[in-house]
Amino acid sequence: GNSVTQMEGPVTLSEEAFLTINCTYTATGYPSLFWYVQYPGEGLQLLLKATKADDKGSNKGFEATYRKETTSFHLEKGSVQVSDSAVYFCALRPYTGANSKLTFGKGITLSVRP
Amino acid sequence: GAGVSQSPRYKVAKRGQDVALRCDPISGHVSLFWYQQALGQGPEFLTYFQNEAQLDKSGLPSDRFFAERPEGSVSTLKIQRTQQEDSAVYLCASSSTLPGLNRSYEQYFGPGTRLTVT
Fold first, then answer.
1. Which of A54, A71, A93, B4 has its CA at 20 to 30 Å from residue B113's CA atom?
2. Strand B10-13 and strand B113-117: pairing?
């Protein structure tokens, strides 16, 4: 079956530090890959996505590249801010379609201190 | 309000009680998903509707869980005879059947209902 594995957390960084959050996946075929973010007290929001190998998703200074050879979709940001403190989830959908359900990793909590 | 809404936001139930959780999807969204998020875990799929038809209920953990969407818009997730292991955040997401600009069929999530069974 499909699965997503995220690095163990939590992660605590100082403002302006470099961020990497690792994500690997197991799936047949050509899944779409996603990063979702959950800010305190809010619902899940799509942060970025990539739908095919070598695609790079980017948003709000975050980036992730779909690496089929390593089955990875690591999230990076060059300089984190306090406002980036949240829980980050890596997820996949096995195919592009209205009925395609998401499979999530466990999530990782990021805390950024001033 | 154009987003997905859920009610109640918090629910405390005594073990054995029945609960009903409501989801109002984005207007016009045909697809609706329910997910369960246990503490410290990622969301896990429960069930999927296309309009009023429940096309996939493979994630429902037991026959105590029941979901409906009778008119193809609002959906209700019902849990009968709640148990402590049912304590979780229940998330609803909706999406259009029309592909977005990037053909992604993006799912939009509601804020969730936090259920605590005591």
1. A93
2. parallel
Q: Which of B4, B35, B56 is the closest to A99 by Cβ?
A: B56
Output the pLDDT for position A98: 73
Interface test with A, best of B50, B60, B107 (most A CBs within 10 A): B107
pLDDT digits (tens, 9 = 90+) for A17-47: 999 999 999 998 889 999 999 998 888 999 9
- Reported as a single tens digit per residue, the pLDDT across B48-72 is 999 999 999 999 999 999 999 999 9
Of B15, B35, B8, B22, the closest CA to residue B80 belongs to: B15
- Residue B112 burial by CB count (10 A; 0-12/13-18/19+): exposed, middle or buried? buried
